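// run 5 | inverse folding | seed 20
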C-alpha cells in the first residue's frame, strides 16, 4: 500500500487533502486515523486552521503512532496559526511518545519541529539534537532527515550573519541531498551553497553554481525566479 508520505504533494495541499480523505474512507482504525491527521495538516497548509483543529478534535487514536501523529499535527496547526509557544509541548510530547514506541521517523520529525519553535537562543542546539538523532537512527527514512536539518542549521547560522558556518552546513546538506537522490531538492541545496558563497564574497564560485543551475533548468524546461534573482545580483555592474 502507498505510504502516507507518498500521497503528499506539498505544492498542492488541496489535492493532497482529497487523497488523504479517500485513504481514510477506505481504511479502518488505526489507518484511517493516521490518514485523517494528514487531512488536518493539508487543511493547515491551506490556512483552514479551524477545520484542521476540528478534524483532530474528533480523532481517538487507538495506537501509539496515532497519538504521535495527532500531537504532531496539532503542533503544526498551532505554529502555522501563530501560536508557536503552544505548539512546543505538542512537539515535545510527540517526540517522547515516538521514541518510546520506536517510531524513529516521527521522532525525528517531531524533534525537527521542536527546533523551529524554541526560543532563538536554543534553536541551534535543538537542530543539532535532532540531527544527532537522525544520524543515529536505524531507519533509512529517519536518517534522510539529515538533509533538512543541516539546511535548518545553515539558515540559523545565516540568520546570525555567520556565513562561513552556514556554508559548511549547506555543503553538508548538499551532500545529503545527493545521497538521497531527489534532483529538485538537490538543486535547492546547490542554490543554498551558492547563496552562501555570494554572502562570503566568493562571487566567481557562486556565479558558476548558479549558471549550472540555470542550464539544468533550461534543459528541463523549468524556471526558478530565485536562480534568476541571484544571477542578476552576481552579474550586476559594480
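// decoded
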Amino acid at each position: 500500500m502507498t505510504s502516507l508520505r507518498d500521497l503528499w504533494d506539498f505544492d498542492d495541499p488541496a489535492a493532497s487533502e482529497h487523497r488523504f480523505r479517500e485513504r481514510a474512507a477506505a481504511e479502518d482504525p488505526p489507518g484511517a486515523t493516521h490518514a485523517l491527521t494528514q487531512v488536518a495538516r493539508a487543511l493547515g497548509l491551506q490556512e483552514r486552521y479551524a477545520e484542521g483543529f476540528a478534524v483532530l478534535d474528533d480523532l481517538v487514536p487507538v495506537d501509539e503512532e496515532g497519538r504521535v501523529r495527532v500531537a504532531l499535527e496539532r503542533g503544526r496547526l498551532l505554529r502555522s496559526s501563530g501560536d508557536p509557544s503552544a505548539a512546543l509541548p505538542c512537539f515535545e510530547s510527540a517526540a517522547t511518545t515516538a521514541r518510546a514506541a520506536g517510531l524513529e521517523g516521527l521522532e525525528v520529525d517531531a524533534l525537527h519541529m521542536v527546533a523551529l519553535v524554541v526560543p532563538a537562543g536554543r534553536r541551534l542546539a535543538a537542530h543539532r539534537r535532532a540531527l544527532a538523532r537522525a544520524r543515529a537512527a536505524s531507519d533509512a527514512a529517519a536518517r534522510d532527515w539529515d538533509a533538512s536539518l543541516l539546511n535548518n542549521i545553515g539558515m540559523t547560522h545565516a540568520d546570525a550573519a555567520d556565513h562561513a558556518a552556514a556554508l559548511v552546513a549547506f555543503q553538508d546538506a548538499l551532500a545529503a541531498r545527493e545521497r538521497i537522490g531527489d534532483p529538485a531538492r538537490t538543486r535547492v541545496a546547490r542554490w543554498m551553497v551558492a547563496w552562501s558563497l555570494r554572502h562570503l564574497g566568493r562571487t566567481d564560485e557562486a556565479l558558476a553554481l548558479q549558471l549550472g543551475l540555470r542550464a539544468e533548468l533550461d534543459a528541463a524546461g523549468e524556471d526558478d525566479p530565485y536562480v534568476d534573482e541571484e544571477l542578476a545580483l552576481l552579474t550586476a555592474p559594480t
